[in-house]
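A student in our group prepared the protein record below, which I am reviewing. Thanks in advance; the entry in question is below.
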Amino acid sequence: MENQYFTSGELHVQNRAFLLGDAVKVSFFIREAKLIMDEECYFFLMASMRKMRMNIPLSYTLEFFQSLFQKEIIEGKGIGNGIINFQVYRNSDGITLSKSSVSYSYEVSELEDVLATHPRPLELDLIKEINVNNNLLSNIRVHCPENIYGSIYAQENDLDDVILLNPNKRIARATSGNLLFLEGDIIKVPKQAEGAYISPFMENFVTFLHKNKLADIQEHEIIAFESQKAEEILLISDEKGIFSVGKIRNKTFGNSRFLNMVTQWKESF
C-alpha cells in the first residue's frame, strides 16, 4: 500500500521546512487500531518543539493528537497497524521566529505489526568520511544532511544502512535509528550524549526488558571496533520499525535472543 499523506492546511513552497529544514519530526504508532506509546511520543514532540524554540499552540494537547489520528487514520482510512511520521514546521508569519505560527504534515506507513521485527536481517557498515554531532539538537529528529549522505553511501555500496560515529570516533547511531548491542546478558546502548536519538520506541522496549529482568541494560561509550564483538545487534527506528542486523563487514550476527525479547515485549501490549 502506498503511504498516506496529511497536512494541517495548504502546503506552500515558502514554508521553512522546505526552504531551511526548520522542522521537527516525531513518530506515533498504531497497533490493532489503537495508538500505543502515545503519551511518550507526545511528550517527545513537545520537548523537540521546545528545543527548536517553536511556538507551541495551546491546541496541541495529547487529546488533540489522539482525536486527530483516530478520526483521520484509524477511522477515516481504516489503517489498523502503522507508523505515523509526524512533522511540525515553522511558518514565516511572526515578528520573530519564536513567535511564528506552526503547521504540520504527516505520513502514514502501513505495516502488518509495528512491534514485529522485519524478516530480513540488515547489512551495515561503518562510515568514517562524516560524523554526527553530540549536542542538544543531535538527539531529536531534525534536518540532518549526515543522514542523507549516509543513506546514499549505503545505496551505492549495496548496504541497508550505515553506522555513524561522533567526533570522538565512537558509535552514535545508524541513519535511521538507534543500535543495541547484545553481549552475554548485557545490552549496550550508545548514550544520548554520544549522539544517539531520543527514542520513545526504544525506551519502551528497554524499560520492558529491565522491569522483567530479561537483560542488563547499560548505556555506554562504544568504540567502533566493539560492533564486531557483539553477539547480536538490533536496530530500532521510530521512523521505520525494528530490524535485526545480520552482517557488518565480514562479521555475521545471530538474532534469536533479540527476536525472543521482542516477541515477549509485543505480547505485553
